[in-house]
Structure formats: structure tokens, C-alpha cells
Amino acid sequence: MAQDKDITPLNPVARLSFTEKFRLQTWLMGIIAFAVMLFLLVQAKFILIALAIAIILFSLTSDAINSISQLRIGRFRIANWLASIVAVILIASGLLTLAGLVISQINTVLTTTLSYTDDAQRAIAQMFAWMGEDVEASVLTTVRSIEISGYLRSAAGQAGTILSQVVLIILFVGFLFLERVWFHTKLENLMDDPAQARRVSYIISSIIRRVNHYLLVKGLISSVTGVAIFLLLSVFNLQFAVAMGLLTFVLNFIPSVGSIIATLIVTLVAYIQVPEPQTAVLIFVLAGMIQFILGNVIDPMLMGRTLRLSAFGIIISLAFWGAVWGIPGMFLAVPFMVAVMIVCSHIPAARPVAVLLSREGLPEEEFPLAAPAVPQDDSDAERAYQHAVGAE
User: Fold this and answer.
1) In terms of CB atoms within 10 Å, which of 27, 319, 335, 386 comes out highest?
2) Which of 93-102, 112-121, 227-236, 300-309 has the highest mean pLDDT?
3) pLDDT at residue 160 is higher than 70
4) Domain boundaries of the chain, sorted by first residue
């Protein structure tokens, strides 16, 4: 009994102190884990960027392959492996063609940039002539102090890595197509619960569907915008029309700021080549109208309610991934944000994050409660998965 009297409950202050220490340790471990993850993202960005692009290309063509494999030509049916091989060949051909076009345009711009260096420096200084001759002379001196050759060498080095990045993307895409056959089997064995596996499949399919729709609409709008800028510069008989059209196509994938940067670059290129400021102003107005009509009118009409992302969240995502991965990270910022919002919306503890990332505070709906029964065979599993995807 004496021993029982010595046993006293923990002091509430001591319990509170223990809870605070546990929370502090949790926060510290979270900060350390985030720092380690950020370090790995920066150090392995060459491989991770290629892997992210490969996953996006794989998701874009995976649904098309499923549709093609269900087609019948008479009594024959296109095999899944044959459709996958054709898809990999088409992706490889498209990537290599696009890389060759980008490299050729970069070489063209680099070889002719030096001849426009003096004109470009004077044109930039003349933009500040209204502030006085002293300011114009100071700006000209500052611009001429910039080492143009160093930036050109850096740009040439970046162009040299494009081909190696494309080859790595093609390899990743090929291996992803090899693994897709066993994905659902691995997922069910990993979850060890058919209902949970269907839930994860639903989340993945929702991410793929939204990202695919975003990329297809953005690709269409960017293509039309790039062609329009090419025609605009061609009408004025300006050089670098192809390069500016390609640059506009690429920069339009960066939301909010990409179209603004593209318009300013196109205007600056026109201003350097044409001595009349009125022509540069006209090109600026026409390019701005093209960007506004296609980006602010047509794009939202085609996009609909696919993204429902917060504009401020998009800017934060652009800043973060731009700081981590540079320009490629800015291209991937929106797909990453879509994936984070959908995943967090299905995790009760992380749902506030999804609410903050969504535009109206209405993120992805929960997994449908009226899920089909546990499948008995592979055909039932496929029908269950299709039902879960279509239930949205």
C-alpha cells in the first residue's frame, strides 16, 4: 500500500511540457525533412525534371492508347503492346523534332545577336531619352558594361543540354509504358485493400484528367498564339519571326507572367530592328491584343472549371518551382499544384491546404461513397475502376 501511495499521477504542467516538447520535435523534424527534400530537388533537378515531363507525356497518351487498344479492324484487335510501341515512337519523334527546331533557332539567334548588339544597346538607351540626355547616356553606359558574350556562351551551353534531356525523357517514357501493364496489380497488392486501391486509382485518374485537359487547352492556345505572333512579325518583314513564335508558344505555358514576358520580348526585338518607335508601339498593341483575346477570353472558355486554382496560389507555386528548377519548374508549377490540391482534398488532415489552393474554396470532391462492390476478377476490377473514374 505504501508503494501505491508513492505513485502519483503526472503533474498537468509536466504533461503540458511533454506535449509542447513533442510538438516542437515534430516541427523540427518537419523542417529538417523539408530542407532535405529541397536539397534533393535542387541537386537532382536534371533527372527529376526529365522524370516529371515523362510522366506528363505518359499520362497524355495513356488514355489514347486505351481507346486505340479497344478498336477492332474486322476480326482483329490492336494489341496494347503495339499501341504502346507506336506511342513511344511518336513521342520520341516529336520530342527530337522539337528539340532540333529549338536548337536551330537558338543557334540562329546567337549567331545574329552580335550584329545587333550596338543597335540593341542604343535602342534600350533611347527608351529613357524623355528623362534627359544625362539619363540616356548613363543607361547606355550601363548597358554596354554588360558582358553579352558571357550570356551567349551560357545560352549555348543550355542549348547543348536539351538533346541529352530529351533522350532521358524518351527513356523514362519507354519504361513507364512497360510498367503500366502491372500498375493496378501492384497498387492492389500495395494497398492490400481493394476499396483503398480504387480510391487511390480515382485520385490518380482525377489528377491525370485535369492535368491533361489543362495541357491540351494550353497547348492549343499557345500554338495559335505562336502562329499569330509569327504572322505578325512576318507582315512587318522582321527577322526572328520563327524564333519569336516559338518563344511565345513556350512562354505561354507559364501562367500569368509568361504572356507578358513574351509580348515585351517581341516588342523589344521589333524596336531594335525598326528605327521608328511608332512601328514598335503598333506591334506591342497588336501582340497584346492577341495575347489578351486568346489568353483572357478564349482560354477561360475552353478551360471551364477544370483547374479552379487560386491565382495567388499559382503565383506562389511559380515562385517556388522557379527558384528550385528555374524555367522548367515554372512550366510544371500548375500541374504540380493541381496534383497537390487533389491529393490534399482527399486527406482530412490536409484538406485546409486544398481549400486554400482552390479558387472558390471548393476543391476536389471526395471519393464517391457509392463505390462498386469488391471485384471478383480482372474484368470486374476494370469495370469498377471505370465506374469510379466516371462517377466524378
Assistant:
1) 335
2) 227-236
3) no
4) 50-180, 193-392
